[in-house]
């Protein structure tokens, strides 16, 4: 007769496959505790644009990959 393990599974292991957002200006990963902002492109309204706190302070330009709108 097979032995039953004392260590039973607590269900499936769930691994979140979501990738963290990146800054649309510098490409840096944005951490959850960073003072970043996200908004839709003011021109086309299709793409979500993320800006890190540093690029916001320095007014680095960003470019929408859908309509090529460039903003400060």
Short description:
The protein is mainly beta.
Write the layout of secondary structure elements.
Blueprint: E1 37-40, E2 48-51, H1 53-58, E3 62-63, E4 70-71
Antiparallel strand pairs: 1-2, 3-4
What does this structure look like?
The chain is mainly beta and 72 residues long. It has a domain at 16-57. It is 8% helix and 17% strand. It has 1 helix and 4 strands; from the N terminus they run ββαββ. It has one helix at 53-58, and strands at 37-40, 48-51, 62-63, 70-71. The strands form 2 sheets. Strands 1-2 form a two-stranded antiparallel ribbon. The chain has a two-stranded antiparallel sheet with strand order 3-4. Strand 1 and strand 2 (48-51) form a beta hairpin. The radius of gyration is 21 Å and the shape is elongated. The termini are far apart.
């Amino acid at each position: 007769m097979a032995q039953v393990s004392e260590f039973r599974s607590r269900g499936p292991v769930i691994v979140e496959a979501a990738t963290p957002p990146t800054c649309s200006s510098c490409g840096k990963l944005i951490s959850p505790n960073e003072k970043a902002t996200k908004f839709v492109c003011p021109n086309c309204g299709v793409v979500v644009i993320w800006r890190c706190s540093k690029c916001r302070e320095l007014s680095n330009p960003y470019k929408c990959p859908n309509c090529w709108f460039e903003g400060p």
